[in-house]
């Protein structure tokens, strides 16, 4: 698995290469959800959370909170890439998943249909 530090560094690099201004460890309060995002662009309202056992992130978001974030993303209010370390084995997979997420953000913001 990819460590918290390595995963966040990869994600920061991918997001910044797409033009986002990523601040690290940003407290987000969105409706009934409060979490510290590993990376966040406040102006674009786009960021990421790399969930690892190392950082104790798995307790940060309940099923209900994830559902609320999903609803807000469906409405285009914000876009938060939440990825669990157990779903990624190598850096290339994490990069690919982040790029696919950002492609979807671009598509939605360009007026494409929601997912």
Summarize the entry for a quick read.
The chain has helices at 4-17, 63-74, 91-109; strands at 23-30, 33-41, 46-51, 79-84.
Question: What's the layout of helices and strands?
Answer:
Blueprint: H1 4-17, E1 23-30, E2 33-41, E3 46-51, H2 63-74, E4 79-84, H3 91-109
Parallel strand pairs: 3-4
Antiparallel strand pairs: 1-2, 2-3
Number of domains: 1
CATH fold title = Endonuclease, Chain A
The number of helical segments is 3
Give the CA-based shape: globular
Straight-line N-to-C gap: 29 Å
- Strand-residue proportion: 25-35%
What does this structure look like?
This protein is globular. It has one domain (4-109): 3-Layer(aba) Sandwich (Endonuclease, Chain A). The mean pLDDT is 92. By secondary structure, the protein is an alpha+beta fold. It has a four-stranded mixed beta sheet with strand order 1-2-3-4. The protein is 39% helix and 25% strand. A hairpin with a 4-residue loop joins strand 2 (33-41) and strand 3 (46-51).
Highlighted features:
115 residues, alpha+beta, Endonuclease, Chain A, 4-stranded mixed beta sheet, 3 helices, 4 strands, 39% helix, 25% strand
